[in-house]
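Per-record layout

source: Trichoderma asperellum
name: NADH-ubiquinone oxidoreductase chain 6
length: 168
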Amino acid sequence: MFILMLINIRTSELQSNNINSIPLALFITILLNYALFQLLPYSIAIINSYNNKLSNIIYYLPTSKYNDIITHISKNIDINTANVMFVTSNSWDGNMAETSHISTIGNILYTSYNMWLFIASFILLLAMVGAIIITIKQERNRGISSMVERLFYTQNVKGSNPLLLKII
């Protein structure tokens, strides 16, 4: 909301002809998509059909076979889940160390999904720089008179001297 107030777009700017920026936007979009799909591994790609196929197989699996698979797996794996109270992980010395959810998310984010972290930070950087560039007003007149007007101005108030210069 602050950025929208900071931009202060006038309706005359919205109605101006912006047809020249469409080819540039298309070029940047194609370039960014090409770079993303060349850099990202296939397993992290956005359009991954393997997950869809696997979910369809599990979804259409009859419940009797599904229950048989679960009971078979649970009988073959001897896990006592009654005493498990929290998620633990092995530390470097072999002792069990408790990890919080935030540290687990951070560990996964910085090791497995670091490319997505870079992409998100790059998008936020572009948004920040774009908002700053949009808010910077370009001066149209760069003559000496505009510099003097910018530094000093006259204030026309009843009873005051119109030649009185005040510093901004």
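summary: The chain has a mean pLDDT of 67. Strands lie at 88-90, 96-98, 152-154, 165-167.
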